[in-house]
Amino acid sequence: MRKNYRRAPVQPKRQYHLNEQITAEKVRLIDESDQHIGVVSLTEALERARAAEMDLIEINPSADPPVCQINDFGRVRYMEEKELRKQKAKQKKVEVKGLRLSVRIGKHDLDVRVKQAKSFLEDNDKVKLEIVMRGRERQHTELAKEVLQTFLGALQEEGLAVITESQPTLQGGRMSTIIAAKPQ
Prior knowledge:
With 184 residues, the chain is of the alpha+beta class. It folds into 2 domains: 17-88, Roll (Ubiquitin-like (UB roll)); 96-181, Translation initiation factor 3 (IF-3), C-terminal domain (Translation Initiation Factor IF3, 2-Layer Sandwich), CATH 3.30.110.10. It contains 4 helices and 10 strands, in the order E-E-E-H-E-E-H-E-H-E-H-E-E-E. The strands form 2 sheets. It has a 5-stranded mixed sheet with strand order 1-4-5-2-3.
């Protein structure tokens, strides 16, 4: 069965009062061409909006008197959603990348993992280091801690400043920790 992965629409955060929802007796009016008309009664503002075949939108309800604009509400909402989408596209989500190590890892394999971790950390991602211990290795957690220290030392030799976000924890036969690049 195939799932439908449709993107959820971006909802603007502001709630506007439109036309008859506006409760103030007098409003400061801005017309459709962004000209400041001044303070007018609500009925006159509604008449002007209807004559222009547009909506009266309360832009700043906290002002005294509230600021209203004659504009097409659909267009205003569209422009806000467009701005939100643009802001969302510029955001970078931090991912947690995983690397598995072993107590008996060889020098070359360790170097390969260090290069992978370096590329992840340079992309501002976090790295979860996981050491899998099997059989009797589980009784020698100090060996796993040594491998972690060797790994972190190799990262520092590569010229990366690293912070350990979580202390090494042991769950079952796995020791794990999360590291991140130190902010400049």
